[in-house]
Amino acid sequence: MFRPFPVIQSVLRHCKTTPRTRSVALTWLLLGLPLQAASYAEWALSRFPSGEAARLPDADPDGDGIVNMTEYALGTDPNAGGAAGEVLRIAGGATAAGDITVEILEREGRRADVQVDVELSPDLARWFRPPWRRTAVSLRAGDPVGGLRTSFSTRLSVRQQWYARVRATAVDLGLTQANYYVAPDGSDAAAGTRDAPFATIKKAAELAGPGQLVYLRGGTYSAVTKISLTKSGTASAPIRIRAYPGERPVLDLSATAGTSQDAISISGNFYHIHGLEIVGAAHNSVKISGNDNRIENCVSRAARNTGFHITGGSAGTTFPARNLFLNCDSIRSFDAPIGGNADGFSAKWNLGPGNVFRGCRAIENSDDGWDLWMGDGSVLIEDCWAIRSGINVWGSATFDGNGQGFKLGGNNVGAPHRLVRCLAWGNKSYGVDQNNNPTGLTVDQTVCWDNAGGAINLNHVGVTLVGNHTVRNNVAIAGSGRSTVSIGGSAPMVQRNSWQLFTGAGVATLADFRESDGSATMAEARREDGALPESWFMRPVAGGRLVDAGVLISGDPREGALPDLGAREAPAW
Predict the structure, then answer these.
(1) Of 268, 292, 318, which residue sits at a domain end?
(2) Contacts for 191 with CB less than 8 Å, ≥ 6 apart
(3) I need a surface site. Which of 149, 378, 480, 495 has the fewest CB within 10 A?
(4) pLDDT in tens for each of the 573 residues of the chain?
């Protein structure tokens, strides 16, 4: 049975399934509009040209229980109340195994500045977003041309009834006026406006100042010179260089092969770079030596040294601090022919405090996934994945990449780095390695499996440790590699890890997780908001022995009374 149930920023319809009726479809008549707006702000202005209050994202001018942000996301008319077209379908019901499939229709296609989610509730009081596997499916008869139908599949505990709703959340409210625009078919002799854009990112970057925005239109920008960002914004007025909403700019450095030139070098402060893909950099794709910079939703591909790098050098004069890499991917960096220097991400030598890598993936880089070689300032690596580091996918006859997933130091230079809620799998050497860091390290809520060298090595011979290691709520699984763990120090804090709780024939295995297909996960797209793929991958089996088996860690999120073991919690509902 379906009934309207209005909720802020959501379309809500009830889905009730019984053992006799496992498949139920919602048909809700809506009128779609053919106009396609570039942003929510433009859409709202076109629908409500004289009503500022009516343009608010959570306003509901037609009183149908569906707020503007959701009307915008689904391509429906905010002034019409109901009309023609299905927007949500419970396509698979709730099977005996607990499988459920939901389809939604975005009538005008995917909006680049909105994250669309489906939430479920057992009772209309508690709502949650389960880990969905999202798949584009064929349009149905009557769907509008240009629409997008997406299937959301998951497996939940068996119930006779679930309620479903669509929630739309702004990713970027879509500033419609930038200070400068750049497009592959532009000209640096032009004015840099939307209608007369520059041709190069370098030109716009040289002009942009505090509080200003540069929009990069989609397409490929071939470059032969380094982009040096040397100015300083402020916390309230950063210098922003962003992909135009819904478009993907690509900076191609193939022509710089044979040089040692970085693609982008940031010695300035408070730069925000968002949505840029960088291909074929001769050295680093992005190198940061300044402070308070943010690199978000960017991709480094085929860099000839490390993809994303933070360093002040080794002279003791520059200590980059409070820089953030958020939701970035570094893929197949390779310094041919040996591959012994090209990491996915690194923070090396002189470092200030507060540098963070969050939500990032290092995929098949020739040396290490992360390398903190001689980094003398504490680094936080949070919710990150290191995948198949040091694997010779290039077929080089002299290949010798190190292959650590997370290398947490080097050459007896100490700093108390922390690794939390991370995954390391398929790496040539260890999933996590101390690498002669003589300071106590923290490794929490991390899963290591199928690493050829072993899971965790924090016990390097000959290192005199200052302080002690902290190792909590981790999981080590051999797979086709090794699950060995070694923790040094006089009094390490080693608590509630899988190798302590499950021993002998009962050691942790991939069967303790709902899904463990690493190859499929590598191919999954990120969410529209840039977050890691949302699925059951490496989440504990519901009610299994990893659930609520950890020790409380102050300030860290959890779903249940206690943390689950590993990096990704099993949802509670």
Answers:
(1) 268
(2) none
(3) 480
(4) 222 233 323 333 333 332 222 222 222 222 222 335 568 888 999 999 988 899 999 999 999 888 999 999 999 999 987 643 457 776 665 565 678 899 999 999 988 889 999 998 888 888 889 999 888 999 999 999 999 999 998 888 666 678 888 999 988 755 568 999 999 999 999 999 999 999 999 999 999 999 999 999 999 999 999 999 999 999 999 999 999 988 999 999 999 998 999 999 999 999 999 999 999 999 999 999 999 999 999 999 999 999 999 999 999 999 999 999 999 999 999 999 999 999 999 999 999 999 999 999 999 999 999 999 999 999 999 999 999 999 999 999 999 999 999 999 999 999 999 999 999 999 999 999 999 999 999 999 999 999 999 999 999 988 999 999 999 999 999 999 999 999 999 999 999 999 999 999 999 999 999 999 988 888 888 998 999 998 899 999 989 999 999 999 999 999 889 999 999 999 876
Phi and psi (nearest 5°) for 447? -115, 125
Token pair recorded at residue 530: 């840039």
Q: Going by DSSP bridges, is the β-strand pair 324-326/294-296 parallel, antiparallel, or unpaired? A: parallel
Work out the burial of residue 565: count CB atoms within 10 Å of its CB; fewer than 13 is exposed, 13-18 middle, 19 or more buried: buried
User: Do 253 and 186 lie in a common domain?
Assistant: yes
Residues 158 and 34 occupy one common structural domain: yes
Query: Which residue numbers are catalytic?
Result: 407
CA-nearest of 199, 201, 334, 321 to 257 is 334
Q: Answer whether 99's CB lies under 8 Å from 151's CB.
A: no
DSSP assignment string, 250-311:
EEE-GGGTTS---SEEE-SBSEEEES-EEE--SS-SEEE-SSS-EEES-EEES-SS-SEEEE
Phi, psi of 164 (to 5 degrees): -125, 145
CB distance 243 to 216 below 8 Å? yes
Residue with tokens 């596997």: 133
Domain encompassing residue 257: 177-268
Q: Do residues 160 and 182 both lie within one domain?
A: no
Burial of residue 167 (CB within 10 Å: 0-12, 13-18, 19+) is buried
Angle CA(375)–CA(380)–CA(381) in degrees, nearest 5? 105
Say if residue 320 is preceded by a cis peptide, omega within 30 of 0: no
CA pair distance 226, 563, nearest whole angstrom: 45
Position 416 in a domain? no
Whether 86 and 24 map to the same domain: the answer is yes
497 domain-assigned = no
Q: Give yes or no for a contact between 548 and 564, defined as CB atoms under 8 angstroms apart.
A: yes
Q: Are residues 38 and 166 in the same domain?
A: yes
Q: Kindly state whether residues 151 and 183 are assigned to the same domain.
A: no
Check whether residue 141 and residue 83 sit in a common domain.
yes
Rg for the chain, CA atoms, rounded: 25
* Same domain for 181 and 166: no
Structural domains in the chain (count): 2
For 38, which DSSP code?
S
pTM of the full structure: 0.91
